[in-house]
Each structure stands twice: as C-alpha cells, then as structure tokens.
Design a protein that fits this description.
mainly alpha, 127 residues
Length: 127
C-alpha cells in the first residue's frame, strides 16, 4: 500500500506543480511592472484558498486510492459512487446515479474514482 501511495503521490505532485506553473505563466503573460508582477506572483503562491483546496482534494484522492487497493485485495468487483456534499456537482450526481459500477472502470464522467474535481468530497463504497 505504501508503495502505491508513493507512486501516486509523485503523479499527483506533478499535477499540482503543473497547475501552479500554469497560474504563474498566466501572471507573467499578463505582464506589468516588476512590482506588479512580484505582487501577482506572491498572490498566487500565498493563496490560502488554493492551498486548502489542494490539501482537501489530495487527501480525498489518497483515501480513495487506498479504498480501491483494499477493494481489490478483498475481491470487491463493483463499487458505488457516494456523494457526501450537501450540493454535489452534476458529474458526481451522474456517477452516483449510475449505480453499482465495475471497480477500475471509468464512471460516466470519465474518472475511475473520486475526486472528480477540486473540493470533491465523494468516495467509493463496495456495492
């Protein structure tokens, strides 16, 4: 399990890094004075909302990856997408409403497990 999480962590770190670099590139593309660029770059790097979103999303991703590994070990072949948010997004509702689903197969939204998007609070359960 630890090896799986290390492998996945490296992939997820790359995704987080790419997102941050895209945001920084957008700041640079907008241009401005050195002081304006410094302020904009600092705003990107110090964004507490973004940091919280990343932490929540990545913890959920790790939890669901561990669930999938446990399901495979326990020979669970079908899972349910469970929404826990008071106001789930349309993609998560679509995945939930699909009912029992083959483990490891893409749900209707195209992902094989939650999270489907930032701040996603969904998880998988055995069906």
């Amino acid at each position: 399990m630890a090896d799986l999480l290390k492998q996945l962590a490296a992939e997820w770190l790359d995704e987080i890094t790419d997102t941050r670099l895209d945001r920084l590139a957008a700041v640079l593309a907008n241009g401005g004075t050195a002081a304006e660029l410094e302020a904009a770059i600092n705003a990107v790097l110090a964004d507490q909302h973004s940091a919280q979103m990343i932490a929540q999303t990545e913890l959920n991703r790790a939890d669901n990856a561990a669930r999938m590994a446990a399901f495979r070990a326990d020979r669970v072949y079908r899972v349910r997408w469970v929404t826990t948010s008071a106001n789930p997004c349309p993609e998560c509702v679509m995945n939930r409403d699909a009912g029992p689903w083959p483990l490891g197969h893409p749900f209707p939204s195209g992902v094989i497990m939650p999270p489907d998007h930032p701040h996603c609070q969904c998880h998988l359960e055995p069906a």
